[in-house]
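Follow-up to my earlier ticket, as requested here are the two runs.
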Amino acid sequence: MYEDAHEKQYVLSILAKNNPGVLLRISGLFSRRCYNILSIVACQTEDAGHSRILIVVSGDDRIVRQVDKQVSKLVDVEKVTVLDRNRATIREHLLVKVARTLQNSEKLVELANVFHANILHVEPNTMTLELTGDAGTINSFIELLNPYGVEQILRTGAMAMEN
């Protein structure tokens, strides 16, 4: 994720009933209050009747407390937790397609090895890599790949779990 020098990023973990439209209602609340969502990840939990929604927002403590209160009022929301980054595992997932030539192929493999990235697919002109890590690691990897010609990036938002 990208940090603004004046704002802190918060990860909200929302447990909600797995009902149609719940994600729309939650994200709509952010839109109506003019809060910007930096990333959002939603999935069914180990219990098919519930979804876990992870939302990364930036702001100050006051804004996060207000968002927490507003989201908690929604009918399908059962629990909202603002995760403590020191007591949570936070990861993102990246798929990146990079231009590949005979000259840079070895270097791309070396970079993948340094970052413990997986090489998913190799074509004569491209290589598709996969990496899971924290935002800083993902950003560094992308930055080092840029000179080789990044053709496409697909990146999840933050996935997080309390330790």
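Run two:
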Amino acid sequence: MMENVLVTGASQGIGRAIAERLTRDGYHVVNLDREPPAAALGTHVAVDLSDRAATAAALAAVTGRLAVTRLVNNVGMVAPAPVEEATPDDLERVIDLNVRTAIQCAQAVLPAMREAGFGRIVNISSRAALGKELRTSYAASKAALHGLVKTWALELGQHGITANAVGPGPIATELFRRVNPDDSPRTAAIREAIPVRRMGRPEDIASAVAFFLAADSGFVTGQVLYVCGGMTITSVES
């Protein structure tokens, strides 16, 4: 019987790569996203996750018919701005989507996890949680995800439930490539700042997520794994 994993924002980019990897690993992926993926994969549930009521309804529909014992909180937004221009409205929108959604999804799937005596939660964070220019609201939201997994690890470990975070560095998604063409000087500078001298791939993040979701990773919880090509140990900004 296929085990169910809920992934938010899995129609494109990193989320899509996660969904593809987990499908290959034998899971049934339930994708909560406003738009469907370009090619069918698992079960797509159309929902605007910035709408709390719509999110609650979608989660109730999913958990009412499926026992979800794995969760990947991937959906997120950035709202870049220097600190002087970071508005309360931007902060509220970023925290709401990036943090509130993670909590709301976890609350929805926890009953099935507790009943099974098993669960895996992975929050997709960012290297920006360690600090990055123009990312006041975003960095705050991603740092909050670290606090969540550490708190959940303490609260839920006795139930066989782990909680961890993956923090991507620069990842060459379709969106990134549109803004930063492979042959541009800016992209070259980003690559040169990465110790492994290449951009990350969405599949790199998917591999880390797959590890945390595995049944035999149960002794790892409350951790943040940066998948960044070594950038967290350099002093050069991305």
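The only thing I checked on run two: Residues 88-116 form the longest helix (29 residues). Let me know what else you need.
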